[in-house]
Design goal:
Distance between the termini: 61 Å
Number of helices: 13
Strand order of the largest sheet: 8-7-4-5-6-1-9
Structural class: alpha+beta
Strand content: 15-25%
Radius of gyration: 26 Å
Length: 442
């Protein structure tokens, strides 16, 4: 009997601890990306498309494919992929608004990946860049306005969701002392406003140009934690009227990779003599050696780019609100499980006392199964896109209209060149959007 009981318990533990993993191996794709072989990286990603969709979902696949395809100059296709991911993120959020509380507080691992706020915000930024490459300035401005609108709604969004969980916890008699949550500092992207400024100048929209230029400064002034570096000096020249017959060339560059999700695990006190494991995702930044970027034109003109935005910093800040909400939901679930276990133990003990017997082996085993399930069923949802960059840099110069070759060097702290990108035969016009883009995967 004891042997059978042990075997049954072992089977139960194995069943409870076995589940689908959302972790995938795309190391080959990532290595190709880091080497600057973007075309092969894209092909490698497509080769694992079915596996990625099955384990991480259509949103992750759309984001990854959309971000990689644009690096091969497939701007129209990239926007199709990014638009599909954006639509799915919006649909998932709309469904969450109408979901009942019981489905809202379940572990995110049990649901299709819904995308993160920072992913949703930057989708429109990269779609706008795609439209600029396609010489569709009006469409670029539409995307940038969408991004800016999403930014303004972030704080309100998480305040509502947090209130929803706290209200439910209070109705269950759960102490809300564990419900401290983070309020994001982010409300305005300097990068989105910079691109708005450039696009507006290119299509002759002076009002939008002036407003966007002012908003860049406000982003730095009101969000010092997220912009701990100086305002780019090239912005001082943007307000000046261009000399007759001259043109303004802008360069935006990206480097590194945005933070990756990791699992954070805590043991929390949930009831008398009962602790539970909770798990929730956090974002961990990734180091990049790039410290300066030099642009050199074939006419001898050269200038350095300056840091405009830490995409990593904004991702971590905006995700902290989501992470704290996820932690709060995990605590609430653990408390509810603990209450259920306590009730079961109490009923089993009361039954045994009433019948003047001991708790049966089956009942004791089931009690252990409940406790094991409470401890092992929590795991963090670490799904996310993989190819958002870490940092955005900008710079500009005034020069004669014409066709230029361009060299962009990404350097480390000692001045050693880590990566070089060559752009050939780029036409700078007196009117239009003169913006070029560079990427360093390191």
């Amino acid at each position: 009997m004891k042997k059978f009981t042990f075997q049954l318990m072992l089977v139960c533990i194995l069943v409870l601890t076995t589940g689908c993993s959302s972790v995938i191996d795309i190391s080959n794709t990532q290595n190709l990306y880091r080497s600057g072989n973007f075309n092969s990286a894209y092909e490698s990603l497509l080769a694992k498309q079915d596996m990625i969709i099955k384990s991480q979902g259509l949103i992750v696949m759309g984001l990854d494919a959309g971000l990689l395809s644009r690096l091969n100059g497939e701007y129209k296709h990239s926007n199709e992929l990014l638009s599909d991911a954006e639509r799915r993120i919006q649909e998932a959020y709309t469904e969450s608004l109408t979901a009942n509380i019981s489905s809202f507080i379940v572990n995110d691992n049990t649901k299709a990946y819904q995308g993160e706020d920072y992913e949703d915000i930057y989708i429109n930024v990269f779609k706008a860049l795609n439209y600029i490459h396609l010489e569709q300035g009006e469409s670029a401005l539409v995307e940038l306005r969408r991004s800016i609108e999403k930014q303004s709604l972030l704080k309100q969004k998480y305040e509502q969701q947090t209130r929803k969980v706290i209200d439910y916890a209070e109705k269950q008699g759960i102490d809300k002392a564990t419900s401290n949550t983070y309020s994001s500092s982010f409300s305005s992207s300097a990068l989105a406003n910079y691109l708005t400024m450039v696009a507006a100048r290119g299509i002759g929209d002076s009002n939008t140009f002036s407003y966007a230029l002012d908003q860049i400064s406000r982003s730095f002034a009101t969000q010092e934690k997220l912009y701990p570096f100086p305002l780019p000096s090239s912005l001082q020249q943007e307000q000046m009227k261009l000399p007759e017959g001259k043109a303004r060339l802008h360069v935006v560059a990206f480097n590194g990779l945005a933070p990756e999700k990791k699992e954070a695990v805590e043991s929390i006190y949930v009831s008398r003599n009962n602790y539970a494991k909770i798990a929730y995702p956090i974002l961990v930044g990734r180091h990049s050696e790039v410290q300066s970027i030099k642009v050199t034109l074939d006419d001898g003109t050269s200038f350095f780019l300056e840091k405009l935005e830490s995409i990593s910093g904004i991702a971590i800040d905006t995700f902290k609100a989501k992470s704290d909400l996820t932690r709060l939901k995990a605590i609430t679930r653990s408390m509810i499980k603990a209450i259920g276990i306590a009730i079961y133990d109490g009923v089993a003990e009361e039954k045994a006392q009433k019948n003047n017997t001991t708790v049966s082996v089956a009942e004791e085993l089931l009690g252990w199964v409940f406790k094991i399930a409470s401890n092992v069923s929590e795991s963090a949802d670490v799904r996310s896109s993989h190819f958002l960059p870490s940092t955005a840099w900008v710079g500009a110069t005034t020069l004669n209209p014409g066709v230029y070759d361009m060299k962009i060097e990404f350097r480390n702290n000692s001045g050693r060149t880590l990566h070089t990108q060559h752009i050939s035969r780029y036409e700078v016009t007196e009117s239009g959007i003169n913006l070029n883009e560079a990427i360093c995967p390191l």
